[in-house]
């Protein structure tokens, strides 16, 4: 695997990554939260009643 193919690529033979795990796109992987938390959930007190 080339360094162009993946952030863990490159080196001679079967060399270890030598760095923290990353996705093929360079984002941190395995353990680190990479998504934002949803906001505003605690602000909704009661849903509006529908007309019947």
UniProtKB/TrEMBL annotation:
Gene Ontology cellular-component annotations: ribosome
Keywords, alphabetical: Ribonucleoprotein, Ribosomal protein
Name of the molecule in the record: 50S ribosomal protein L2, large subunit ribosomal protein L2
Bias (Basic and acidic residues): 1-11
Alphabetical list of InterPro entries matching this protein: Ribosomal_uL2_dom3, Translation_prot_SH3-like_sf
Keyword Methyltransferase assigned: no
Region (Disordered): 1-52
Organism whose genome encodes this protein: uncultured Chloroflexi bacterium Rifle_16ft_4_minimus_27880
């Amino acid at each position: 695997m080339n360094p162009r193919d993946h952030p863990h690529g490159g080196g001679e033979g079967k060399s270890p990554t030598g760095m923290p795990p990353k996705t093929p796109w360079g984002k941190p992987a395995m353990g680190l939260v990479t998504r934002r938390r949803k906001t505003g959930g605690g602000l909704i007190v009661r849903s509006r009643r529908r007309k019947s």
